Amino acid sequence: MSLLVTGSAIVAQQGDPLLFDVDLTAVGIVVGKVLVIFAFLLVATMFMVWFERKLISDMQNRIGPNLAGPFGILQTLADGIKFFFKEDLIPDRAQRRVFILAPFLSFVPAFLLFVVIPFGGDFNDGNAGVVTIFGRETFLQVADPPIGVLFILAMSSLAVYGAMLAGWSSGSKYPLLGSVRQSAQMISYEAAMGLAIIAVVVKTGSLSTHDIVVTQAGEGLGGILPNWGVLLTLGVPFVIFVIAATAELNRPPFDLVEAEQELVGGFHTEYSSIRFALFFLAEFMNTVTMSAIFVTLFLGGPAGPVLFGPGWLWGIIWFALKVFVFLFMFVWFRATLPRLRYDQLMDLGWKVLIPLSLGWILLLVALDLAQDQNWNLFAVGIGAAVVFFCAAMLLRAAVRSGQATRHTLEVPD
Amino acid sequence: MPEAVLLGGEQTTTAVEWVVFIIAATTTLLGSFGVIMARNPVHAALSLVGSLFSVAVLFLNQGAEFLAAVQVIVYTGAIVILILFVLMLLGIDTEEDLEDEPLRGQMPVAVGIGVLLTASVFALTQLVGFDVVTGTPEVTAAIRDDMPNINQIGRLLFTDFVVATQLAGVMLTVAVVGAVVMARRPREYQPIPEPESMDAPLSLDPTDQGADNGAEVAD
Amino acid sequence: MTFAASMLASVDHPPIDWHALAPELIVLGVLAIIILVDAFGGEDRKWAISSITSIGLLVAIVPVVTMAVDGAVRSMFDAAYVVDNYALLFKALFLVAGYIVVLLSTNYIAEGDYWEGEYYQLLLASILGMMIMASARDLIGIFVALETISIPAYMLAAWRKRESRSDEAGLKYYLMGVFASGVLLYGMSLLYGLTGSTRLVDIAAAVSGEAPALVIVAIVFTIVGFGFKVSAVPFHTWAPDVYEGAPTPVTAFVAVASKAAGFVALITVVLVAFPTQPEIFEPLIWALAAATMTVGNVIALRQTNMVRLLAYSGVAQAGYMLAPLAIAGHSATSAELATSAIATYLVIYMAMNLGAFGIVIAMARKTGSAELSSYGGMLNYAPALTVAMTIFVFSLAGIPFLAGWYGKLAVVLALVQPGTWFGYSMAIIVGVNSVIALGYYAKIARIMWIDPAPDGDTTRVRVPVSVASALVITAVLTVAIGVYPPLVDQFTGAESFLTLGF
């Protein structure tokens, strides 16, 4: 267990992983999986860029990109090539080294996040997603550390640095304002996001993403419904996660970071050429990754029925389809929802989402406990609802009283 | 109950662990030097990120995944971000801000003390011949093999260390309360006098000036 | 079975003795109540907070008393949390000290337009930390308790937000305290790394015999860490500035309760974890104690500000209290004697020092100053306060038949018990220092009794009821213990006072 990568991903690994005694097949499999992930992410990101433009065009009764390739599918590639040949500008007042570093800081976590996502494998009949490659049993997932979920949180907290430093190092006002907004927003919503994830962890009993998917692959309620996280946690954490993740991604309606009317382009105003392309890519890659996290936590990951052919392939197909649903959702949000105001954004995060998700975790645990102790579920539900209501009223009263005190005490004159 | 002897003796470190240790330890040290040597506060904070991240890798190397994750989430993900926030919002993010040395000559003194401390610990452990090192696998290894260390930490926190855990909760709550008070403006808010060119000439009533702020004499 | 149930099923629940935790739980409950009162009560009910706090502190003493009557040693979590006579005495001490500080604060905080609700919340949290510190017998518990004591204290020191001196006090206290915590934590981590356990009894078992060099480093760092808390020289530099800048009730709290908590931790760690290593800690503490009392007293001689003077006097008193630890490793008897001597001294120090700060608070209401000269002519316009202050300073000086005298006697008796030159020399240093100290304590008395009032202002001092009652309590305690020492002796001299592990 010395390294994340050589961790439990390789199930049948034997012997001490001494440096000169490394099992080359195992290393080869890991490297292969990394390459597959890399390629998949890049392609998915390019697809996402095209998909977003095309879908929004449809929703707005426009045509959208339609010249480069069939249905304009090569538009992203064309844009990428254009970016390459543009002039690379670094402002005079920029902090050169940090300015150059920043795009990579936002790009790398987006990649690393995907490392713990199970993207394929057959989870039917207690198969637990094990596939055999070159005689080795392994999962279709680069690494399965026992702290997979915490790894997700850690990487998404690292993602803040890119935007923050980009804004600061530009040596210009608007980027700085944008990056301060962004980091405040991301830190605020990380808490709600973490609490929503904890609800899933409580129900599935593991922090390992693989174990979470295995639990969700089991029989659900009445043998008809799937045992997915969204149903296990009774829906609310899923909604919280949708909101928090959208804010975390700085996508509409939470894209105050790059509110053109106020901030020009936000933290990347001063960036051009390939450096801007990196930010652009990172943003869309984060969208793809976040959708994958959604699928893993709430929609059973690659688990799904096998219709014909090899099981592992169906895992990948189900995974891709589920991810696609969320990609569509994000685009839909962008096309329909108006942008929030900054104080509304903060109020929503701190005063609604965090208390709600905290309360929901308590509710889930209470119901769990009631089930085991054979208490009356109905009574526990009513009791929990009463507690919920009282707590909500208390919170309201506290906020009110706080506002009243602030107005009487701190307004000058 | 652990055996009542000083721990030490043979370690079983694999070559991979050695390589990871050397790399991570080097970056930890480089990051730490960066923190104190950087001329720009933001660069110093970034070096701190590097240092803390490398420590997380060291934790991972010791099999403490949970600590590693928490190290990244709490330190690099929250604390340094807040440091950067304050640096940026207060605008003390330029190189000139570090040129003003409030304590003259503290650098050389600090270097001297640091070297002395390192040398004494080194001398005590190596030269005197007592070859006990901390961080041996017997100490840092998980207490039980049959469950992930995050479960073990959770159990310990809510059984043997439950008092300390709850007390830490009280401490953090109260710290938030205190921090809010520290951050708020004093209640008797005194607006900064407007510049004279604003409109009406300022009435400089001497009795208004320096309103009584010695709370001790409040009657 | 659901996940929650499977987790619960396989966990060994350590038995919890709720009676042993009752005092802490009551304080915690009061803390919660005053947070709610503060949040929902509005401005016109702020006065209730100090009343609730003081009543709650008194209520919390009830289970302490019932446990003391019961007399059983309660040990939880494998001897990581022990409630014995030693712990009970200090819990009672912290609660009483907290109560007196609340009495001293009530008017000061309400009139000074401070953040009333938050003030008492921080104070209570700090007291809660102290109470747990008295029982904690493992490194994690001790460290968390120490931080719970310190963090509110840092912020309370900066409570006079409009005063730059108060800001300075808070910042200085914070930086020094954090540095000390770092040193302490490094020592603790070394101890854990060497022994594989955080429980003091396990550490004691592991470090017996000839100690490797790293144990020396660990012990030294741990003691140095606590040295900051008890303001031992050369780690005392924060004390005068903090005492002067902080609001005076907070100063009283830091000077008495916080210091006592530091001593509790120091005694527990040294005597429970390192009893087998006297040749390491004894010389170190000898040097610390000698330096502390001498430096404190000599600098105190030159002070012109009452609070700074009391600060340096507090440093010197810390030296007296450290002294018995220097011989505590000699034998089990000397360890017991030393513990009782320090406990006795701490109880007495609580009474007389809180009293002295009470006078400072009362006088500042009239003079608005803590300069020594402003105490001139006190006899004429505040005779009762003058008499009380005289009692307190002479008790601090160790004049016979006031409590401080008995405290010094207990220290010296403990020092000479082993019959080594080590103890004798320390006893002599204590004696010499007491004579030096008389110099500045007598100066205070002279100014109050003989000097004229600085500007002829002899209007009476209006002392609020709460401050007056605090002064009465402390003065009565100071005199009563001095006249009849068994009053404190029967608590601190009990057989097997400090439970040395299981």
Provide a quick synopsis of the model:
In chain A, 64% of the residues lie in helices and 2% in strands. Chain A has helices at 24-59, 75-84, 96-113, 148-169, 173-204, 209-216, 229-232, 236-248, 260-263, 273-298, 311-336, 342-373, 377-410; strands at 130-133, 136-139. Chain C is mostly helical and 502 residues long.
| Morphology of chain B | globular
Count of separate structural domains of chain A: 2
Range of helix content of chain A: 55-70%
Radius of gyration of chain B (CA) equals 26 Å
Percent in strands of chain B = under 5%
The helical percent of chain B reads 55-70%
Rg of chain A, alpha carbons? 23 Å
Name given to the CATH architecture of the largest domain in chain B: Up-down Bundle
Provide a descriptive summary of the structure in words.
The complex is a heterotrimer of chains A (413), B (219) and C (502). Chain A has helices at 24-59, 75-84, 96-113, 148-169, 173-204, 209-216, 229-232, 236-248, 260-263, 273-298, 311-336, 342-373, 377-410, and strands at 130-133, 136-139. With 413 residues, chain A is mainly α. Chain A has two domains: 19-340, no CATH class; 341-407, no CATH class. Chain A has a two-stranded antiparallel ribbon with strand order 1-2. In chain A, strand 1 (130-133) and strand 2 form a beta hairpin. The longest helix of chain A has 36 residues, at 24-59. Residues 1-20 of chain A have low confidence and may be disordered. In chain B, 58% of the residues lie in helices and 0% in strands. The longest helix of chain B is centred in the middle third of the chain and has 26 residues, at 65-90. Helices cover 75% and strands 1% of the residues of chain C. Chain C contains 20 helices and two strands. In chain C, helix 11 (248-273) packs parallel to helix 13 (306-322) and helix 13 packs antiparallel against helix 14. Chain C is globular, with a radius of gyration of 22 Å. The model of chain C has no long low-confidence stretch (mean pLDDT 86). The chains are: A mainly alpha (413), B mainly alpha (219), C mainly alpha (502). At the B-C interface, helix 4, helix 6 and helix 7 of B face helix 2, helix 5, helix 6, helix 7 and helix 8 of C.
